[in-house]
Design a protein that fits this description.
Helix content: under 10%
Distance between the termini: 24 Å
Number of strands: 31
Strand order of the largest sheet: 27-3-29-30-31
Shape: globular
Bound molecules: 2,5-dideoxy-2,5-imino-D-mannitol
CATH superfamily of the largest domain: Glycosyl hydrolase domain, family 43
Largest sheet: 5 strands, antiparallel
CATH topology of the largest domain: Tachylectin-2, Chain A
Radius of gyration: 24 Å
Number of helices: 2
CATH class of the largest domain: Mainly Beta
Number of domains: 2
């Protein structure tokens, strides 16, 4: 059921504290731990896991989402914060949310904490700030990952393209920075972009530059030496920028070009996210040489009320098939996924639909589940995802950025911020016909060393079953749950993960408690929430980071299904 992983990267980077500040032993009592997890990696990874328990919450209590039994005795206190980073520069907020900044000062970090909070197998730079994955591609035997990177600090700013390569998508080699802001058309940041591989193998890289006047423009770059499998050097096209915001588009609402796809007329198309008022849109351009472009009158798609679309991703999926498709594939048996990262909510949303190559328009299969109002790509901390086609293994792989729950001052003290998800393969779900399925790339299997299996564990409603896995620092957990019929069978609209692990539904939620202290005074539920809806049963895979948190200003008298006392958090679930 679980498999401890070994450490995979070089020793972690962090600015070591003075020796006298180090703890007398490496162990960190839970009550002295930093009150927020540094990041949430939902897909079955658990760090510093002390005990592992499975839970099912009483099925008989089924409050409506608006009637749950969370009764905070005090509201978060008000506080003043500077404007989040990035907003003035014309991009999404890059610092933490209101609630999570409601922590005064920085935590009392120790070297031991710095060490166990680094990942072992999720990609992260050696140090400093990272955000979106950029231009992923496979070239001459190497997987390349570029990423938004601040080489100078653990906060967003001075954005360059960091670069790493891997032969297996798991073990990474850090390479020199690929592109820095050094031209008037990108001096305020070499922002997000995508790679297109032409049929003759040439690589075309298009990225957004924030100009000296903070206008968002699109720029072209290509490898200086195509015979170099590591693609170490990049040339910016002297004629940059190749695209400036069209007249009806705001100068700060024009970013993140997609991988291009070829139409039946042989011309290339690409799409760029934007907005008109509150309507999120995706502009379409056609080109033959990637230097000159024609803007189409019609959008690829638009959804009122969804706001600015960042990091649009657009690609085909096979209706019946177990392989991924190259971005230019069209024809019968193919649907197209359209994904947008919503600037207003910081959530990646997608929908499945039909692309018409004759007019370059995409129509959702189900308008009620359109982009931004229906499916989310992930229900945890996840943003700015980008996919690429891997011709070597014939699969489509998607990366997503997992940002921090830390405060900025804590990030600065740690010396780093954020990780990328484990890359995931994406396929159309031909069982439901309405969503995609994602799975960590198969290479992850190579990391498994030994395992402990628990079978036929019975978890009664409202109970917690400890699973003794001994001591481990990294785990990969595969869990299969068999459930009884859904509660009373009453209909309740699926409301995803909102409400966290405490919000009960007809069945559960149920799942695993990880990062759990012996007393269960601190824990992180990774859980499933199922509900009967008019359209069938919906199941969401969720993580609840707030159960790990003790807000000193908020004593929350939850109705505990098990006893936890003498803690500032009176009950965590
Ligand atoms: N991050 C980049 C932008 C993009 C945003 C700037 C999304 O290009 O819109 O770092 O996180």
């Amino acid at each position: 059921m679980d498999t401890p992983y070994h450490h995979l990267h070089a020793p972690p980077y962090y600015p070591p504290l003075l020796p006298e500040e180090q703890p007398s032993d490496a162990g960190t009592p839970a009550s002295h731990r930093k009150p927020f997890k540094g990041f949430a990696a939902i897909l079955a990874s658990a760090i510093f896991l002390l005990s592992l328990v499975a839970l099912i919450i009483n099925q008989t209590q089924k409050p409506l989402p608006s009637q749950n039994n969370i009764v905070p005795t005090s509201k978060p206190t008000s506080f003043s914060n500077p404007e989040p980073r990035g907003v003035a520069e014309g991009v999404s907020a890059k610092s933490n949310s209101h609630l999570l900044r409601n922590i005064k000062g920085s935590y009392n970090w120790t070297n031991a904490m710095f060490t166990w909070q680094r990942t072992s197998f999720h990609f992260q730079p050696e140090k400093n700030w990272m955000n979106d994955p950029n231009g992923p591609l496979f070239y001459k035997g190497w997987y390349h990952l570029f990423y938004q990177y601040n080489p100078d600090s653990a906060v967003w700013g001075n954005i360059t393209w960091g670069h790493a390569v891997s032969a297996d998508l798991i073990h990474w080699l850090y390479l020199p920075i690929a592109m820095v802001p050094d031209q008037w058309y990108d001096i305020n940041g070499v922002w997000t972009g995508s790679a297109t591989i032409l049929p003759d193998g040439q690589i075309v890289m298009l990225y957004t530059g924030s100009t000296d006047k903070s206008v968002q423009v699109q720029n072209l770059a290509y490898p200086a030496d195509p015979s170099d499998p590591l693609l170490l050097d990049w040339v910016k096209y002297p004629g940059n920028p190749v695209l400036v915001p069209p007249r009806h588009i705001g100068p700060k609402d024009f970013r993140d070009p997609t991988t291009a796809w070829a139409g039946p007329d042989g011309k290339w198309r690409l799409t760029i996210g934007s907005k008109i008022g509150k309507t999120g849109i995706s502009l379409v351009y056609q080109t033959t040489d990637f230097k000159t472009y024609e803007l189409l009158d019609e959008y690829l798609h638009a959804v009122p009320g969804t706001g600015m679309w960042e990091c649009v991703d657009f690609y085909p999926v096979a209706i019946n098939g177990s392989v991924g498709l190259d971005t230019s594939a069209t024809g019968p048996g193919i649907k197209h996924v359209l994904k947008a990262s919503l600037d207003d909510t910081k959530v990646d949303h997608y929908a499945i639909g039909t692309y018409n190559p004759a007019n370059d328009k995409w129509t959702p299969d189900n308008p009620e589940e359109d982009v931004g109002i229906g499916l989310k790509w992930d229900y945890g901390r996840y943003y700015a995802s980008k996919s690429f086609y891997d011709p070597y293994k014939k699969r489509r792989i998607v990366w997503g950025w997992i940002n921090e729950t830390d405060t900025e001052s804590d990030d600065l003290e740690k010396g780093w911020a954020s990780v990328q998800t484990i890359p995931r393969t994406v396929l159309y779900d031909n069982k439901t016909g309405s969503n995609v399925v994602q799975w960590p790339v198969e290479e992850i299997e190579s990391l498994r060393q030994n395992s402990t299996v628990f079978e036929e564990v019975v978890v009664e409603p409202g109970s917690v079953v400890p699973l003794d896995i001994g001591v481990a620092t990294q785990l990969d957990i595969s869990a299969e749950f068999e459930t009884e019929l859904l509660g009373s069978g009453a209909m309740e609209e699926g409301y995803g993960c909102s409400g966290g692990a405490i919000d009960r539904s007809a069945m559960g939620p149920f799942g695993l408690l990880v990062n759990a202290h012996d007393s269960l005074s601190e824990l992180t539920p990774i859980f499933f929430r199922s509900s009967n809806t008019t359209k069938g049963t919906n199941t969401y895979f969720c993580a609840d980071e707030t159960r790990f948190v003790c807000f000193e200003s908020e004593l929350i008298p939850f109705d505990c299904p098990f006893e936890v006392s003498n803690r500032i958090c009176k009950c965590l679930i």
